[in-house]
């Protein structure tokens, strides 16, 4: 199953690359733009949030490691290359996570989450699935935000890639 999960993640990574190539064509000030008073993230901060989700669930929760996150002020200064670097670390983390839990995908993992008093219980398969679907959810939001800024996003659907 681990080989299947590696391949699945590679497909996801390829769709992410299409999004990165598109974002590189947008001026940085647009990528860092957040609608005043809307409470919405910028494209950059939302994309870093996706990387942080992987780090939170896979590294902190699943592998029980300490994770240090960039501050909001630091993230607001990021460009696409810095976000790419975040995801390069995520790619390495996902492969490590898959290796760590090979043949133990239904094992119960328990750890604290900030929104409840008692420990949260789940499986490595749930953690990986959650982080991947979370990325696709926000990829759609990023594409929508770019469209609202006047940029037409490419088709990042897996079916549109020539694999």
UniProtKB/TrEMBL annotation:
The keyword Metal-binding applies. GO terms for molecular function: metal ion binding. Signal peptide: none annotated. A divalent metal cation binds at residues 49, 134, 138. It holds the Pfam family DinB. InterPro entries: DinB, DinB/YfiT-like. Belongs to the DinB family. This is Damage-inducible protein DinB.
